[in-house]
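Memo to structure team: turn this sequence into structure tokens by end of day. - J.P.
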Amino acid sequence: MAAESRLICASQDVIEAGRGFRFKIRRHERDVPAFVIRFRGQAYAYFNECGHVPAELDWQPGEFFDHSKLYLICSIHGALYAPESGRCLGGRCQGKGLKPLKIHEIDGQIFLDQENNHG
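Reply from structure team:
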């Protein structure tokens, strides 16, 4: 039996090392912010919450990458995260990485694997 999936966005809505796509996911009986970005051709999704404090990362809606386009950056603390893993690379994330979401990309669309993303 196939896992339940929810369409997040079209693949073209997620720019390589650029603008990501924001969406909401149901977690602990409430809707919480999440995002999907593209890095080195692959799409990755995370809860939109800094590892340091519960603050959204993007400095403008959908803008998650730092100026080098190599790292995700927290708009409040400047904490840096690896786009491909969410791992804390430095700054005030204190070793706490981003919480990943399972997604898949097929036929020009990005889907959230709902079965494995309950928080």
